[in-house]
Every structure is written in structure tokens, then in C-alpha cells.
Amino acid sequence: MMLRRGFILFLPRVVGLLVVACCSMSIVYMLACTPKSDNQQLALPRVHSPTAKEGYDAILQEREEQHRNYIISLKKQIAQLKAELQGRTEQLKKMQNQYSDSLDIRLDHSKPEKAQANLLAFLRSQVDKAEVHSGVKLSTEYAAVPFESFTLQKVYQLETGLTRHPEEKPVRKDKRDELIEVIELAVRSLNKPDGVSKAKPHVYTASDFVEGIYRTEKNKGTLYELTFKGDAKHQFKKIVLFRPFGPVMKVKNENVNMADTLINVIVPLAKRASKFRQFMQNFREMGIQQDGRIHLTVVYFGKEQMNEVKSILENTSKSANFKNFTFIQLNEEFSRGKGLDVGARFWKGNNVVLFFCDVDIYFTAEFLNSCRLNTQPGKKVFYPVLFSQYNPSIIYGHHDSIPSLEQQLIIKKETGFWRDFGFGMTCQYRSDFINIGGFDLDIKGWGGEDVHLYRKYLHSNLMVIRTPVRGLFHLWHEKQCLDELTPEQYKMCMQSKAMNEASHGQLGMLIFKQEIETHLHRQKLSSKKT
């Protein structure tokens, strides 16, 4: 009885403890399960705050907004990654098109048309990569790939080695067949009807071919520029062809009218009146009488022999009825670069071809046309490699007499060499010369100014045409290397002096002259004894 009464009294206490325990567990659960903000744990709704349901709705809505913003951020990052991946893919495709075109040219015999299209696309890409339509920037003067020139009978080449000659027939079958194929293709292209003109077309033959130049870029192909006689005097047809290590492709077919293209020949001079008289004989015959589209600018330094030079110029003007000349006198020390620069800037007429020349140069009328054909304002400048004459006293020392000047001017290994280290004789439009900045006027005396200008053109986007020409000669004269020159200029002058005298074989004969005479004397004595 007492046990039942004690149990009844203890039961409310147990129930109260259980209620307290349940409440405590509910509070702990609520604290543990309440959503957190980014920086701190979100608090439970308080007594004076909105109801618990409204509080939880607000918390859930805020959390949902946070997730929504996070998803938007992820989508932006994914879009950026896709764009970057697309850009990388385009770059990869471009590199494959530029450098791996050969991998795409698969001769799939099941699809011959596609294979042919791929091949043609690759070959045309070679034209775009090569220096055909425009020049490319080059780092040094040695980086320029020179052209070689040819006619129907001869090839004029720079790299002669030990056995080849500066001028020779194309004896190698591959070279002969190559040039014949190019000329024949050019003739067929010229005779192909254009479908526009109704006049009877001129039928071109190989005999209309004047000259051509070509060069090979070993990783692209061979570029050919061929010149044919036009329909009238002073008019030409020019064909540009390219062999991208495969079939030759016509690049350009254009009419070139040089009838009104004037050349301003600029000659810097100090003293040397006798040489100027010889120069004017050549200028009168080739420039005035045969060509006729020429102007002469003489820039004279000092006053010594000036009256004699002016007299020669005036006499030529009167006898040839030639008025297209300018005489500029400067009272200062001779500087070739200064003279050429002053002469070029003095011209006030329309844009003109400038031919920078020296008094000891001989040129032909054919060269003047080459000067015009290989220059183009804003596109091309012409740096011909001239043929430098050896000392006639050494070359013809075993002859009874030295031949006339015209008879001496033949291109052979024994008579001279291609002056491929010289950059002084050049043709360019005046606009290109002015835009490039002209000569470095700080260079005094002999040498250096021409190389400086040449490098300027190489560093530009202009195409530099460098080729040996058969109508431009440097006449031999004794070279004096003055003590006033800088060490570098003096070294260049002495090297040029040594190169000018004779060929290796002829110089060897001079060096061993005593030994040869001793041998001949012994032979003579031996024959007498027997």
C-alpha cells in the first residue's frame, strides 16, 4: 500500500523529467539543424521576431538565393572555358593549315577530286608563304636571297664555286630543261586569248623573250619573272611564274609601259675630270641617243677641276641637244652619301626613278630598262650586281696591245667578277628613298653609306631585287686608300683593291713569275745541251 502510494507520488516527477529532457533534445536538434549563412550560424527566431514558420521560410529563401548565385557563377566560368577552348581550337587549325598542309593531302583514290583539290590548295598556300606579292622583313644583308638572270642563250649566276663561270650556257640538263619549260609556259600564257579584246592578238614566240630573273627559296619554291617585248617601243610584257616544288603556276600577267618612265642618274664627283669625260661618252651614247628618257644630276664637291667638268657637261649638252641635266656644287669635303642624298632631294618634279651611279661605271641601254622594270614605288627596289673589270694591263699583258674599252667589256672568268659585295649602284623611286630616310650623312669619305641604305631597305617591307646584270660594268682604275679613312673603311678599301686587280690564277702567275722564268731558263739550257 505504501509502495503504491510512493510510486504515485514519484510518477509526476518522472514525467516532468522526461518533458524537460524532450524539450532539451528539441532545442539541441533545432540548434544543430538551423541553416548557416556564409559568415556565421543563423539564429533561431526570437520571441519578438516573426513566427518560427516565417523565419524558416526567410532562411530557406536566402539559402536558395545563395545557391542560385553560385550556379550563375559556375555557368559564367563554363562559358569562359568554352570560349577559350574554341580560340585554342582555331589557333590549332590555323597552324595545321600553315605548317601541316602536307598531312591533309592524302591521295585517297576513292575520292580523286578531293585529293586534287587538297593538293592545289597546298600548292597555292606555298605562293602565299613565298616572297612573291610583297617583301618580308629581313634581319641582315646576308639574309636576302639573290636572283640570277638568264636569256635564251646564257645564265648569269652569282654562286660560281670552283668550276662554274659567272656567265655560261645552261649546260646542266635539269637547269636547261627548267628554263625552257618556263619560257614555253610564259609564251603559251601570253598567246592565250583574254576574251575581251577584239583586235587581232600579237602572237608571241620565244624570240620576243628579253630576259628573266629567278631565285629559289628552298622551303617554298622557285620564283620566275620574265620580260617579253611589247606591242610598241618601250612597252613590255611581264610574266610572273612560281614553281611551288610542283607545277608552275601563273601568278601575274600584266602590261608594263615604260615609255614615260624617267631615270635620274645621280653622280657625286670631286676632281677626276678625265674619268668624267669617259663617263659622258658612255652617257651620251647609251643614255641620250639610245634611251632618251634620262636626266643627269652631277653633285660636285670643291672647286678644283670644276670648270673643266662643267665644260664637258655643257659641250655634251650643245652637241647632243640635251637639256635634262642639273649641276650642284658643294664647298665641302667629298662624301658619296651626302652627294647622292643632296642630288635625290634636289629633284622637284614628279616621282622619278633614281639611279645612284659613279663616274667609273659603264652602263648599257638594256640596263636602264632593267632599272625601270625592277623598281616599283612602295613595292620594289633594285640592287643590281655589276661586273667588275680586272686590271687590263694584267689581263692583256701578253698581248701586243690592249683592246678598246668596248672589246674589254665581256663577261668571262678571266676578265672580271661579279661584285656581289658592293651595294653602291642601285635603282629606286625617289618616294621610297625619302620614306626610308635617305643616307646616313655622318659617314664621311669612302664606303659604308651604301651598306647602311641597303640594310634599311632589307628591314622594310619593300622587296629587294638583287641580281647580276649583263649591262652594268665597273671600269678598272687604280684605287687609292687614304690614311684619313677609319680602320674599318681602310680595311674595306684594301680588300676591294685586291679583288680588282686580277683573278686568282692571274695573280698566281704574277707571284710565281720568277719561279716560272727560272724554270723556262733551265728548260732552254737543257735543250741546248741535247
From TrEMBL:
Positions of transmembrane segments:
7-32
Class in the EC hierarchy, top level:
transferase
Q: How does it sit in the membrane?
A: Single-pass type II membrane protein
Entry keyword set: Coiled coil, Glycoprotein, Golgi apparatus, Membrane, Metal-binding, Signal-anchor, Transferase, Transmembrane, Transmembrane helix
Q: Which SUPFAM superfamilies match?
A: Nucleotide-diphospho-sugar transferases
The family line of this record is:
Belongs to the chondroitin N-acetylgalactosaminyltransferase family.
Question: What is the protein named?
Answer: Hexosyltransferase
List the source organism: Eulacestoma nigropectus
